[in-house]
Amino acid sequence: MFDADRLAARFERLPQLLEADPDLVRRGAFLDARFQVGIGKIPFDIVVAGGRVTSFERGPFVMRTWRFAIRGNTEAWGRWWQPMPEPGWHDLFAMTKRGDIVLEGDLQPLMANLQYLKDLLVLPRDGAAEAKR
Questions:
Q1: What predicted TM-score, i.e. pTM, was given to this entire model?
Q2: What are the DSSP calls for 91-122, one per residue?
Q3: pLDDT tens digits, 72-108
Q4: Which residues contact 64 (CB under 8 A, 6 or more apart)?
């Protein structure tokens, strides 16, 4: 139903979308971490320092280290990025409970910056930027 390459292309706009949201950058000021986001079989290596994305690469990677990973199937990301996600598709933890999203690694920085990371991952959502105005 959802195409991984189209979803990955949408996700690749993340650094520019974040730079256009100074409030979100400010809220992530205390996060310094390398993490991975998986969209289907497509991994992304992301480094956030002081709330800004300082490195953003599309994989595949060989033996790339990361602090934590958020991996989901294409249906999970496709539904998450709908303008108004249906119940159960609107929250990372709801999707982990169902098995559509997997959280791995050292979850302390993820949990300590949970709202920032959830808001960061919402940026590619249809209409997300317009809704903040």
A1: 0.90
A2: -HHHHHHHTSEEEEE--HHHHHTHHHHHHHHH
A3: 999 999 999 999 999 999 999 999 999 999 999 999 9
A4: 36, 43, 45
Q: Domain residues of the chain, as ranges?
A: 4-126
Cα separation, 3 vs 50, in Å, equals: 32
φ, ψ of residue 54 to 5 degrees: the values are -100, -15
Which amino acid belongs to residue 43?
P
Sign of the dihedral defined by the CA atoms of residues 74, 20, 32, 117, in that order: negative
Q: Which CATH architecture has domain 4-126?
A: 2-Layer Sandwich (3.30)
- CA pair distance 13, 124, nearest whole angstrom: 7
